Amino acid sequence: MVLIAAAVCTKAGKTLLSRQFVEMTKARIEGLLAAFPKLMSTGKQHTFVETDSVRYVYQPMEKLYMVLITTKASNILEDLETLRLFSRVIPEYCRNMEESEIAENGFNLIFAFDEIVALGYRESVTLPQIRTYVEMDSHEEKVYQAVRQTQEREAKNKMREKAKELQRARMEAHKKGGGFSKGTNMSQMGGFGSSSSFTSPVIETPVEMPKPVYTPAKTSGPTKAMKLGGKSRDVEFFVDQLVSEGEKVTSPQNSSKPASTKIPVAPAVHTDEVHLKQEEKLVVTVGKDGGVQNLELHGLVTLRITDDKWARIKILIDNNDKKGIQLQTHPNVDKELFKSKSTIALKNPSKPFPLGTDVGVLKWRYQTQDDSALPLTINCWPSENGQGGCDVNIEYELEHSRLELNDVTINIPLPIGCNPVVTECDGEYKHEGRKNLLQWILPVIDNSNKSGSLEFSAATAIPSDFFPLTVSFLSKNQYADLKPKEVLQIDDDTPVKFSTESIFYTEKYEIV
């Protein structure tokens, strides 16, 4: 065998990390590491030192030593080359050569060491290959995630079934009690409740519940993911019961959303007794050489009424859409009236809208591969500079002048350990070394700064290292050119004062 062990030590002789590559007792390897600082000669800069049985090949790294323990029969030139590769791996995971950094990233370093040496012999690998191998997906992790998602879906389905059963029980109890009270929610009358067939494409959570950590069962097969207690007269009490039993309770719309996706929260706005909210989310995938692979928009208008004297109203929509967006009203809304006059009103004018809850009344969907539909285009040009690195030029351009985009962040991936040198930047930038990410931050993009650029250089990189780029933003302007124009009472067309708010944000925006 050639290479016995690799270790990271302090200059005082303390071993921070050690990886053994051959069969050897713990006492033996500890003895070899303990002997290393005693063999070092003060003031001399030799790269190796020998004993009767082994050779220590080492390299100083600020306050640390990278040490390889080899047999005396090994080729010293190959040992030095292997040592240089080990020394290049450490900065990939540790920004500073400190004890705390080595301890924090110990497992990643050990995984990387195992890619360099197998059974005492060096593998024919390069630094980019090591980086790729260490970051490869785990099949076991994917199986674990699939089992976890299946169990969560089962729990949510059972929760919804039980909620419907409780709703029916409440309806029967109200009927036996002699009718409905004044504040009865319309969901109990077959209206806009949880038993309705309408499914919002955007997150809608009238009740926010705490989210404890969900621990899946150890078995890979499906299990009963919740325990049903006694019947409750209230859905909220039932949801509280689930939470107390350790279930992770979320709204049904959350089940299809990736865990990493964050829904932006719109700032608080003044709301009148009649309040309309427009919410749009955008999913975009663009090729790195140009061309929209997919653009999909989902929108929803919700209505909240807090005073029963305004419960019987109709909403006039100003629809200036020219893109061909597909509109769909709630099943309880008069579709013919909406098609002919762009007016939202209930099929039965004598029935009021529900009070004190957000009711989805209109939704829309738009899907295309037309480049002109993009609200913001990103052009990334990485080019090799002939010195083993890349010069990168990134440009943005606002395509729809009526939009104002806020909190725009363009995330550019970087090779592990890369420290980019930014030469030009419109806006701000931030280097996230731990995440191997360069963030280009633009607080606002509008007509005053419709375009901008970022230029930087990166050593030891190839053009594909900078993809996929991801973009996030939010806007108070709607993508779809439609908005509530007027709210009138059903009986006499008296105008009703109302407030509006709108938010347009990215759910996923990638350049791949």
UniProtKB/TrEMBL annotation:
Pfam families given in the database record: Adap_comp_sub (PF00928), Clat_adaptor_s (PF01217)
Keyword Oxidoreductase included in the entry's annotation: no
Localization (cell): Cytoplasm; Cytoplasmic vesicle, COPI-coated vesicle membrane; Golgi apparatus membrane
Signal peptide: none
One GO CC term, this protein: Golgi membrane
GO terms, biological process: endoplasmic reticulum to Golgi vesicle-mediated transport; Golgi localization; protein transport; retrograde vesicle-mediated transport, Golgi to endoplasmic reticulum
Keywords: Cytoplasm, Cytoplasmic vesicle, ER-Golgi transport, Golgi apparatus, Membrane, Protein transport, Transport
Bilayer disposition of the protein: Peripheral membrane protein
UniProt main location, coarse: cytoplasm
Family the UniProt entry places it in: Belongs to the adaptor complexes medium subunit family. Delta-COP subfamily.
Free-text function comment from the UniProt entry: The coatomer is a cytosolic protein complex that binds to dilysine motifs and reversibly associates with Golgi non-clathrin-coated vesicles, which further mediate biosynthetic protein transport from the ER, via the Golgi up to the trans Golgi network. Coatomer complex is required for budding from Golgi membranes, and is essential for the retrograde Golgi-to-ER transport of dilysine-tagged proteins.
Subunit composition and interactions: Oligomeric complex that consists of at least the alpha, beta, beta', gamma, delta, epsilon and zeta subunits.
Protein name: Coatomer subunit delta
Provenance organism: Apolygus lucorum (Small green plant bug)
